Amino acid sequence: MAKVIMVQGTMSGVGKSLLTAGLCRIMKRDGYRVAPFKSQNMALNSFITEEGLEMGRAQVMQAEAAGLSPLVCMNPILLKPTDHTGSQVIVNGQVFGNMSAREYFSYKRKLIPDIQCAFRKLEEMVDIIVIEGAGSPAEINLRDNDIVNMGMAELVDAPVLLVGDIDRGGVFAQLLGTLQLLTKEEKRRVKGLIINKFRGDQSLLDSGIEILENRGGIPVIGVIPYMEIALEDEDSLTDRFTRKQRGKIDIAVIRYPRISNFTDFNVFEQIPEVSVRYVTTVSELNRPDLLFLPGSKNTMGDLEWMRDNGLEAAVKKLAVKIPVCGICGGYQMMGRQISDPEGLETGGTMRGMELLPVTTELQREKVRRQVCGTVDQMKGVFAALSGLCYEGYEIHMGRTEQAFDAAVFQSGENENVYGTYVHGIFDSGAIASALVDVLAKKKGIIIDGRTDAEAGICIDYKAFKETQYDKLADAVSAHLNMEEVYGMLREAH
User: Which is catalytic among the residues 325, 328, 396, 479?
Assistant: First the structure.
């Protein structure tokens, strides 16, 4: 049986996902077969495995850190919010149905056998499993039906590391308050405390740590510095949405209320002198060099939101002047019509943006598949992508008619307008770099000091992420007592 350790936090956004990835990378480098696990994840950024199953991207990131291919048994339950009170529930990679928060709260313990089965499958493959919790174990109103924090730790008898975020302030209150709200049995599981995202002179923490250990009765085994790591963060708490800087190449992404899979644009952030901005109003939009309409968990609702706040009209006006590309839900919005005969979203039929010659009908069966191929001959700015190889994945609940099934990109009569169902298409690096180079040439500028002869040099995004996993592991191992962590594993059943 695999040894198990669990990372829990005092709240959402304390850095559980990255610390779990860091532990996976450290243990991999130490020669262990290690895998991540999260029984239940709530996220709109998701991924399709080789088997065509859907899982949260945080566990994909952690699997990459561990040197493994992502497997749906690493994340057996995925909740994708559809509105403020309900989510699409995905179990073992497949759509189980839509539930309100209250319905799911009453039902979720029935999913424990699915969690146990997934965990046992993972146990057979590795030496160590690093489990990530969700939110806080001190959410006492949710404790009775918990399957992701202490409830999960009890299921597999896991020792727990409790993480607090000092960057938000009040880290001692976070940690002590959480411990005080745990039952005696739960508190016994907590074997070490971690203070995360520290900036400054660590010696100034010494007196506070001494009081924390005396009052809490649990040692602080690490003070992790604030790290500038270019890896995927928790989608609901990302700081990407608030960045306002502009580079020589300005890429804008419409941030609708149910935006999903905005990880499609992370690769552009790693290209020098390129900025990615997320916009919610017409005044923020201005005139970027390239505009994306990203995926959406509620295509019709988000199109209505754009229509109401004037962004639809602004995007259509810009499409005459700059390239506009829709991905997945954004692609559906750009068509002539969207219909929802089964009431999966808002029901009925609504006019699309009429930028692409396609119509979409939402259907109950979700398309889930990995895809690869070569970009067909394109026009306009995207002509630079013609003949390049791509790979990615599709996740959508709609069938789009009059689309060219063999083409990764659909273009309209206006050569500035494009659409695709493929997530991750820019991650190969060559496609992203080719697109940036042609945008720079169109503006008559040189980026990163490159000459025309050097244009087309692409970022290897996968190799770049490997450097970030190692950077993360170096920082965590330097500031976390790994001997204590391995000792907890040895003592675990």
Answer: 328
